Amino acid sequence: MTAILAIFAVLLDGLLGEPRRFHPLVGFGRLAEALEARWNSVLDRQGTRARFLGVIAVLLLTAPFTAFAAWLESIPMFGAAFGVLALYAALGLRSLGEHAEAVETALAADDLAEARRRVGYMVSRDTGDMKADDVARAAVESVLENGNDAVFGALFWFMVAGAPGAVLYRLANTLDAMWGYKSERFFHFGWAAARLDDALNYVPARLAALTYALLGDARQALYCWRTQAGGWESPNAGPVMASGAGTLRLALGGPARYRGEWHVRPALGYGNPPGAADIRHAADLVRRGVWLWLALFFIGGWLDA
Fold first, then answer.
1. Own/partner long-range contacts of 143-146 (Cβ < 8 Å, ≥24 apart)
2. Contacts from 42-47 at CB under 8 Å and sequence distance 24+?
3. What are the percentages of helix, strand and coil residues in the chain, rounded to 5?
4. Which residues have a Cβ under 8 Å from the Cβ of 162 and sit 6 or more positions away?
5. Which residues contact 270 (CB under 8 A, 6 or more apart)?
6. Burial letters for 74-90: b for 16+ Cβ neighbours within 10 Å, e otherwise?
């Protein structure tokens, strides 16, 4: 049953994409912003107090909605429909593909200014002086990483814990995107959001990395995962991106500028730098991975029946 609901949710995402208006995460984000502005004052950004407030903030923002999702899922006749809607709201497969396609189209048309603008919607790094190769690399990296964050992670937690699992995962991922920075403002207050997101992504990220490997150059993907992932700052993005780079036979990683400062990032994968067409190849890899997961979910549910 859960596998069938997941299939319907993926189909709904493919048909409708992200809600253009009244997306529940928009309201949640505003609530999180208001709470952070009230609790994370300049005077409270140091040490234990800031971390404690960050822990309480994460609990207040995730526990009630997760519990409410569990209650709605338990309602006869309505619970299944809510499960589909909850996973649909947590997924971003079509949106990820649309962003990737916009960057690829601009690069293929040699419109570098538009390509920079479009990739700016996908990444947090500075894009104003990117060359075409830099834009393509940033887009491919974003597609591979967000394949887990926007798709596989939500699918995994939906299969494990139903609608409450998908809701908790998406809320934690949203808080990490908002607060999970090692800046002066969020170093302590955002600690709990970052750690919760790391914990929830630990298993799905490695399953996503394995999925990438199975759908491409498996030997190189597994080698890159084993030898390169540990050097990446994020414990979950490392395996996903290293495996994806290896399976696509691309050279990713390397220096990137964030908020005016250059960051030296390890190299990922082997091969040529990505071009415009490789952005589509990365998006196709994620899509094929999703259908592989859904097929396995369905077969597993049928065998257990």
1. 143/96, 143/100, 143/279, 143/282, 143/283, 143/286, 144/212, 144/240, 144/241, 144/244, 144/245, 144/252, 144/282, 144/285, 144/286, 145/237, 145/240, 145/241, 146/92, 146/96, 146/122
2. 44/189, 45/184, 45/185, 45/187, 45/188, 45/189, 46/188, 47/188
3. 75, 5, 20
4. 2, 70, 73, 83
5. 220, 224, 245, 246, 249, 251
6. eeeeebbebbbbbbbbb
Output the CA–CA distances (angstroms, integers) from residue 169 to 63, 135, 189, 242, in the order listed: 11, 29, 19, 23
Residue type (1 letter), 220: Q
Residues β-bridged to residue 269: 251
3-state secondary structure of 262: strand
Measured CA to CA, the distance from residue 258 to residue 264 in angstroms comes to 11
pLDDT digits (tens, 9 = 90+) for 147-172: 999 999 999 999 999 999 999 999 99
Distance CA 54, CA 169 (A): 17
Looking at residue 23, the DSSP 8-state letter turns out to be -
pTM: 0.95
Sign of the C-alpha dihedral, residues 202, 204, 209, 214?
positive
- According to DSSP, residue 251 is labeled E
State both tokens at 57. Answer: 């903030």
Q: Angle at which helices 153-179 and 79-90 pack, to 10 degrees? A: 50
Q: What's the pLDDT tens digit per position in 50-85?
A: 899 999 999 999 999 999 999 999 999 899 999 999
